[in-house]
Amino acid sequence: MFLQMKVFGLRQGKLKNEEESRSPIENFDKIVFSEKIANQVKDIHLLINNAGIFEKEKGYSIHQPNRDIFQKHFDINSTGAAIVTSNFLPLLLTAASSGFSPLVVNISSILGCISRIVPISSLENKSVIYGMSKAALNYYTKALSLEEPKLITVALHPGWVKTEMGGDNALLSIEEASSDIVKRVCLLKKEDSGKFMDSKMELTP
Q: In which domain, by residue range, is 110 found?
């Protein structure tokens, strides 16, 4: 389905893309990256929102919440995806007008699955804000699917991945997780829009 494509990306941290714009994702509404893309392509068939942070210092817990840390998580983990998607929405809808079903894939987490919440005290990090911000992303995913039915919009839990965030003890390599995501994306259908799933099964937000 995506044998020929041009890939653009935003990045933070140590990753490298072929073509990129470095900018804090929480300030994405203030940069011109979407205009740059619009000048180079006429439409977009696949948008993956993969930005995320998981603060491991003080200020993320139920008993000692810090407003700035909480806000930063929402800015990057959920609000950022909404702003990025809105900036690219005209290009996605242009693709839809040609008979294609454009995909919006929001990389989420099982920690944002409300029906699967476990006691925060049982988590190694004791963080409440990461799950809160990913639950907000899941809500946005469902809302977008209802508002823009021409798109296929899903939230994906990629598993515990050996990234800078996941750490070396994680179960999946970046290559394994990426392969699983690609396989799932290639199998997505209209009836999947609005769902929260991992690479193997559908989850319930």
A: 45-50+61-203
